[in-house]
Design goal:
Keywords: Cytoplasm, Transport. With 341 residues, the chain is an all-alpha fold. The chain has 16 helices and no strands. α10 runs parallel beside α15 and α15 runs parallel beside α16.
Length: 341
C-alpha cells in the first residue's frame, strides 16, 4: 500500500509538471502567433507576464532563454521599444540571479545590442547596464566596437576598441578611418594617439597588436622598423621599453623624440600617465613641473641612493653629461579626451 501511495504521488507530480510545461508551451505558441499576426504589444505583455512568474519561482535559466528569444524576435521585427525593454529585463535577470559572467552570455548581450537601432535613446541605457553587469568585459567592448564600426560610428567604435583585446580589428579600422577622413600628414598621429591611450588604460596587449596591424596594413607606411616617420619609431621603442621598466631608457627616449612629441600637446599628458603606470614616476606636483620634472625627480632620487652606497669607493666620473629637456610641458590633469572617459 505504501509503495502504491508513493507511486501515486510521483505520478501526480509528473502530471502536474507536464501540465505546467504544456501550459508554458501554449503561452509561447500564443506569443509566436501574436508576433506573426503583428500583435506585438500583446506579445510583449505576455513575455513580461512570464518574467514576473518565473522570477517569483526563481526559474532563472528558463527565463533567460525566453527573454533572449523574445527580445531578439521583437528587435528583428523592428519593435525597438519592446525589444529593448525585454533586453533590459534580460540583463536584470543576469544580475539578480547572480548568473556567472561567461562568454556565452556576453555574446548574447552583444548580439542584442547589435539589433538595437542606433537612433533608439534606450540603447545607451542598455549598453550602460550591460557594461556594469560584466564589469567592462573586453569581450563585450569588442562586440560593441564591431557594431559601431559597421555603423561607421568611428568615435564610439574607437572608444570601445581601446578597452577590448581586438587589436587586429582596431588596426584595420584605423587604417580605414585615416584613408577616408584623415590627412596624409596624420598617418603617424592616428596610431600614436591610439597606442598612448591604450597604455594609459594599461591595455598593452591591444596597443602592440593595433600598432603592428596598422603599420603593416597601411599602404602609406614603409615596412619597418625602422620607419621613415620618427613618431612611429618612438612608438615602437616605447612598446619595448614599457616591458623593461627601465626609467632611464624611458627618459632618454622621450628626450630624443621631443620634437616629434610636440606635434600634439596631449602626448605629454599621456606620457605622464604612462610614466606613473609603468615606471613608478610620481605624479607632477604642479602644472609647471611636467613630464620630465617627474622623471628627473625619480632619476635624481635613484642616483642619490646609488651614490650613498658607493661613497666609500667612488667611481671615476665621465665628462659626458645627459641632455636635459629644454621644453616645458603643459598638463591638463583634469581633462582627458572622450576616449579615456
Amino acid at each position: 500500500k505504501f509503495y502504491i501511495s508513493v507511486q501515486h504521488c510521483l505520478n501526480m507530480s509528473e502530471d502536474m509538471s507536464q501540465n505546467k510545461a504544456s501550459g508554458i508551451q501554449r503561452v509561447i505558441s500564443k506569443i509566436e502567433n501574436n508576433i506573426r499576426n503583428g500583435n506585438f504589444y500583446e506579445a510583449h505583455q505576455m513575455y513580461k507576464t512570464l518574467y514576473f512568474r518565473f522570477m517569483a519561482q526563481k526559474k532563472y535559466l528558463e527565463l533567460l532563454n525566453f527573454l533572449y528569444d523574445g527580445a531578439s524576435l521583437l528587435l528583428e521585427h523592428d519593435q525597438q521599444g519592446s525589444g529593448v525593454d525585454l533586453g533590459l529585463l534580460y540583463i536584470d535577470v543576469l544580475v539578480k540571479s547572480k548568473t556567472p559572467v561567461n562568454d556565452e552570455y556576453i555574446k548574447k548581450v552583444g548580439k542584442l545590442f547589435s539589433l538595437i537601432n542606433a537612433t533608439v535613446p534606450e540603447r545607451d541605457s542598455f549598453l550602460s547596464a550591460a557594461v556594469r553587469w560584466c564589469d567592462g568585459s573586453p569581450l563585450l567592448h569588442q562586440s560593441v566596437a564591431q557594431t559601431y564600426w559597421k555603423e561607421k560610428n568611428y568615435v564610439m567604435a574607437r572608444k570601445h576598441f581601446l578597452r577590448s583585446y581586438d587589436g587586429s580589428s582596431f588596426g584595420t579600422m584605423l587604417v580605414e578611418l585615416h584613408r577616408s577622413s584623415g590627412y596624409s600628414s596624420e598617418v603617424d598621429l592616428f596610431i600614436a594617439q591610439t597606442v598612448l591611450q591604450c597604455l594609459c588604460l594599461k591595455n598593452k596587449k591591444t596597443a602592440v597588436i593595433t600598432f603592428q596591424c596598422y603599420t603593416t596594413q597601411h599602404p602609406s607606411i614603409t615596412k619597418g622598423p625602422p620607419y621613415l616617420l620618427p613618431l612611429l619609431n618612438f612608438i615602437w621603442f616605447l612598446l619595448q621599453v614599457v616591458d623593461s621598466g627601465r626609467l632611464g631608457a624611458f627618459t632618454i627616449l622621450c628626450q630624443e623624440y621631443q620634437l616629434s612629441l610636440e606635434r600634439d600637446p596631449s602626448y605629454m599628458h599621456y606620457l605622464d600617465r604612462i610614466g606613473q603606470i609603468f615606471f613608478n614616476v610620481p605624479p607632477p606636483p604642479s602644472r609647471s613641473s611636467g613630464l620630465f620634472g617627474g622623471i628627473l625627480e625619480s632619476l635624481v632620487q635613484s642616483l642619490d641612493d646609488y651614490n650613498s652606497d658607493e661613497e666609500s669607493n667612488p667611481a671615476p666620473q665621465s665628462s659626458a653629461q645627459p641632455r636635459r629637456p629644454t621644453a616645458t610641458t603643459s598638463h591638463a590633469t583634469n581633462i582627458m579626451e572622450t576616449d579615456l572617459d
